[in-house]
Design goal:
This protein has 336 residues and is of the alpha/beta class. The chain is built from eight helices and 20 strands.
């Protein structure tokens, strides 16, 4: 399927190594899909989030640190293989390798080479480092396929050190006020960054966060002591306590039954906008994102050295217009 051209610039002839289909992004030279939307025969997976790793495919290939995460998410009996970062393998007529995307543990940009033509499908990526995964590494290519989740100039992230300071300040104030701290973040990726950020000797993890954190530890990521929240803890167990949980599983009824006062904070890039509906539901918010901000997205494009950029998944139209004005050859995948 051809690419939809949204640029006013002249198009250099390219061989399309990746095309869009109803099943997702497809590489005809290697006969595989990248983060397919529905079950396929061979799926290359950039990372373990549910909008990229879906059940039902016959075979999965991902970066080796993400194998445990995919098995936890997709099923232990699934055929899931992993390879190290930067190792090249041949899949039919395509040479493929996985490179750090800095998004979560095992997240990857997938490099595809056919007859000297190189494409990189970035998946989700973050250009600022954090202590829970390998940092983003630019990969030189002819065509760079980029997400655009936060592709607006209003999005600019604080350093990891500043986020840690903000989070610990919130925890310390709650301790001073004898109030339980609830830190909300998605169970895979965000919750582990929150765990790294917290300095407390009484941290509980919700069951889903606990399971994902164990997969991180299996891959060599180290954390301070924590316990799994089982819903059977006594009120006294929560002294100066911290619970890390997805926002949808805050055990409000349990806390009310034990007469435990708590303050909840949500960690998300969307919390950077003070007027957001999410911000109003919490005592505090931290603009902690696992995606690149405006500066990071543009840096990734520049450092890829790509002759053309394919933008998808997010605020694509404003960013496409901006990149075109900067002289880039920019396209987007057609809608199926």
């Amino acid at each position: 399927m051809p690419l939809a051209n949204v640029s006013n610039f002249a198009i250099t002839p390219f061989v399309d190594l990746v095309v869009s289909s109803e099943l997702g992004l497809y590489c005809p030279f290697g006969d595989f899909f990248i983060d397919p939307l529905r079950p396929v025969h061979r799926a290359l997976v950039t990372h373990g989030h549910s909008d990229h790793a879906r059940r039902g495919s016959k075979e999965y290939l991902t970066q080796e640190n993400g194998v445990g995460i995919l098995k936890e998410r997709l099923g232990r009996n699934q055929s899931i293989s992993g390879i190290p970062y930067n190792q090249e393998i041949r899949i039919k007529d395509a040479i493929v390798s996985f490179h750090p995307a800095g998004h979560i543990l095992g997240s990857s940009q997938i490099r595809i080479e056919v007859n000297g033509e190189v494409w990189v499908v970035s998946g989700d990526y973050k250009t600022t480092p954090d202590p829970t995964c390998e940092p983003f590494t630019p990969v030189r290519c002819h065509t760079f396929v980029s997400e655009s989740t936060f592709a607006l100039p209003i999005y600019h992230w604080e350093t990891e050190a500043e986020l840690v300071r903000q989070i610990q300040s919130f925890v310390n104030q709650n301790k001073k006020d004898n109030v339980l701290t609830v830190l909300c973040g998605y169970s895979l990726g965000k919750a582990q960054r929150l765990l790294k950020a917290v300095d407390s000797d009484n941290v509980y993890l919700s069951p889903s966060v606990f399971r994902m954190t164990k997969e991180y530890e299996s891959a060599g990521v180290q954390f301070k002591a924590y316990r799994e929240f089982k819903g059977k803890e006594k009120k006294s167990d929560w002294s100066n306590g911290v619970l890390i949980t997805p926002p949808q599983t805050i055990p409000i009824d349990y806390f009310q039954e034990l007469d435990i006062e708590f303050r909840a904070a949500f960690a998300s890039g969307w919390m950077s906008q003070s007027g957001s509906n999410q911000m109003q539901s919490y005592s505090a918010g931290f603009a902690m994102s696992d995606h690149a901000d405006w500066e990071g997205l543009n840096m990734a494009v520049r450092e890829s050295g790509a002759e053309r950029i394919i933008v998808h998944h997010g605020f694509s139209k404003p960013w496409i217009r901006y990149l075109c004005e900067k002289g880039f050859n920019v396209l987007t995948f057609p809608k199926n």
